[in-house]
Structure formats: C-alpha cells, structure tokens
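Lab manual, section 2.4: Encoding a predicted structure.

Procedure: take the sequence of the chain (438 residues), apply the prediction step described in section 2.3, and record the output as structure tokens. A sample record is shown.
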Amino acid sequence: MRLIDLISLILENLNRRKGRVFLTAIGVVIGTASVVLLVSLASGLQKSATSQIGNIGDLTTIQVYPGYRDSGMMMAGGGGMMEMPEQILLTPKKIKEIAALPGVIDTFTRIDLWTGAQINYGRLINYGQITAFGGNDVEKLGFAIQDGAAQIPRGGAVIGGFMAKNFMDPQMRPGQEPPAQPDLMGKQLKLTISRYSEDGQEVKKVYNLRVVGIMKETRAEQDSMLIVNFEDLTAINDWVNGKRVDYNKAGYSQLLVKASDTKTVTEVTTQITDMGFYAFTPQMIVQGINSLYTIMQLIFAGVGAISLLVAAIGIANTMTMAILERTREIGLMKAVGASNRDVLSIFLGEAAGIGFLGGLGGVLLGWGGSKVLNVVAVSYLASRAAENGGAPVSVAVYTPLWLPLVTLLFATLIGLLSGLYPALRAATIAPVLALKYE
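Recorded output:
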C-alpha cells in the first residue's frame, strides 16, 4: 500500500468516528497542555532568576580572595597540638601567575581603606565603602555608569548609585523632612579619615575628591561604594599604616579576574581554587539555579506525563473497541489482498493520529495558557517590586521553542505505543474468522 493511500485511509477512518476520536483526544490535550504549561513555568522562573543575577554581577568576572592551606606546622593549643594553616596571599607574583592562566583576559587588584571614614558634602554626611581598583576604569570591571566618566583620575572618585542619593543631615530633628539629595556630578566631596598615634591620640586628615562619575544602581556591592584612584588610596593607606605598605608581603585584599567568556569561567575558577585561593563568580550561582530548575522541569514534566499515561489507556481502549467493531472490515481487507503489515499500519496510524491531534490541541492550549499566565504573573510581580523597591521582572513564564515540538512528538509516540497491542491483534486475525464475526 502506498504511503499516500495509507494516510488517506487513516484520515477517513478517523473522520468516520469524530465524536469518539474527540473524546479520546481530550485526555491527550489535558496531559500535553499540563506538560507545556508546567515546564514553561519552571523555564520562566529559571530565566527570570538568571537574568536578575546577570544584572547584579558580570558573569565573566571572578572574585579572588586570599586562601589557606595546611602548612604542616604544629603549635600547642586547646589542650594539645594543632596544625596551623598557612595563608596564601594575593601578592604581585601570584597575581601574575593567575593572569597567565588560559582563558584569563585581564586582572584588577583591589584595595580597601584600612580605617573608618566620613564623606561630607556641605553639611550632609554619608558613610560607605572606600575602595580602589587597579586600572582606575570602573567600566572594565563591569560596573555601569549612569552619568559622567568611568576613568578615575588622581583626586577623582566614582560614587555608587545608592550612596549618591542617601546623604544625611546630622542635625535633622525627628519628624523633619529628609534633606534634598544633591546633584553630585562634578562636585567636591570631603573624605575625613583618622588614625591613632603611638600615644593613643586620634589624628584626622581630610582629602578632597571630585565626583567624576555616578554608577547605575544594580542592588549589588558597588551601589554603596566610593571608588577612588588606586594611587590615591595606596597613599592614604600608607598614611593610615604609618609607613609604606609592602604588597609583596601583605598582599591585596581582593583580585578581580575577567574570563574570556561565560563558558571558560568555571574552568578558570577551578584553576584558581587549585592554586589555594578562594574564588567566587556569579556564574556559580547561575549553575546552581540551572540545576535546581532543571530538576523542577523534570518533576513538572513527570506530573503532566501522568495525565498522558491515563490518556494512553484511553487510546488503547478506543482502538480495542474499534477492532471489535471492524472485525468484518478487517476480514474484507485481507480477502482483497491487504497484508498483515497493511492492517498493522492502518491501526497504528489511527492511534498515532489521535495522539497527534490531542498533542496539537494540548500544545496550543498550553502555549496560550502560558502567555496569559505570563501577563498576569509579570503584572503582579511588577507591582510587588514597586512596593518593595526591587527590580521588575520581564518574564515569569517562558516557553522554549523545543518544548512544543518535543511535547507534540511525545504525544504522537504515546498514541503509537498505545495502539501497538490492538494493532497487532487486528493484524493477526485470520481472514476466515474475521468474515464470520458477527
């Protein structure tokens, strides 16, 4: 039997029993729609979570800190001998070794102010993290600039978005309106730092800094930073320390490592960890989230698959009843020359057709439902974000392109497998017995 004739006969047989086919396909529709909708929900949550992390930090950046390793040195303590760990410092020599690793395109040393500081603008004050990065260019670090320049000259500073709008009036009384936040771009800030002399007296020093840039607020660490010129902060720390800091002995507090792309970040992080340092990258969080939501997708798909299994029983039952009703028809087909293979193909095709039609309806229903659910969820989450001051969510339910195709194929396969036993039974009926069947 030619393929075109087989398809035509299958469609004609399905059309003869439209009501039965429709009722049987409803089970497949429900199961397929459940799979599409639930997996789309998990995919949307995954996409939303990873995009939020991408907004917080550059996924190609690795934060490296000093590490520890067993030194083999023993000392008395706690009622016995205990092993003392050896600290592995981020010295210039070690930084060169990290910079030479495959996949590393740049490194940026970081130093922090070694003492407390107060930031003044007129009568307004603020407190935050005073830090500096090698290279003095915040955009190379992945920090987005809202206004001004990213390059920090001597005597300049780039301020975080949160810090820039949270200056306080120390003389403000209870119930008084908060002061209007100044436009700091191009303005002078006073940085007051202190140290204690050998006789215990507090010594203060004031540095003038001109704001050359304001960073976008991303709800990350840099929002509360005042980033100054690297050479300026080195000199300030030398003053706080009372002598020049030898970074070959003291090491740097942190190193930012830029990988070539997100695919090499994990490998570079592992190599840095093997050197004894502590390394962290937002990509590690993304991988954990992806693993979690992959498990969720499998669980949700399994829940929907249960409905498909129930529908499979319905298809098997429908095809079994069809064989009983069409036994004489099967006998006539065999009498005029139809082979067992032809009969098998017809009934398998009808079962697969029911699965395909139900799968197609379920995919359309699930896709449409996911779109409606996404609009409702995004609106709700946007209102919650506005109340809590969080970033709005753009996607809550997301249907990847492969999901409808795979689900439709799976529904068709379920129909095919469900009709396998009835089709084999029909194909093996003896023509004489089939013609005598009442």
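Check your result against the sample. Residues 340-388 form the longest helix (49 residues).
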